[in-house]
User: Fold this.
Amino acid sequence: MSDTFSGSCACGKVTFALNPQKYSVLNCHCHTCRKLNGGAFSTYVAVADEAFEIDRGGAELARYAVTENVDKFFCRICGTPMYNKNKKYQGLTIVPLGALDHPEGLKPAANIFCESKLSWVPLQDDATNHPQGLPS
Ligand SMILES: [Zn+2]
Ligand SMILES: [Zn+2]
Assistant:
């Protein structure tokens, strides 16, 4: 069994590998992530930069500056979100769980920006819940 998770966009032009030595999985319930990803909330895998590698299709990645701190990288062909970089979280690449090819083994440990959570979204019993971002 490999420790590496593979990921790809919907059209398959961009592929990446994520070595989950150091990672955390969380759900973000903020309004911006709803807009960026289209779901009621967004599940992310935060992984150390050195454990994340674009395998193919790097030239197809487009960047959108979401805020002065956050950049979103996505496939310019199919629009799939591939990863985010946040200047507040230096050294981390933040990958939407849905971009992984086999995400079943990864489960969120935390919910952030719960103050913006839609009321019908349930929270897991075994996750920590934070009204805003993770406490530093
Ligand atoms: Zn694509
Ligand atoms: Zn968010």
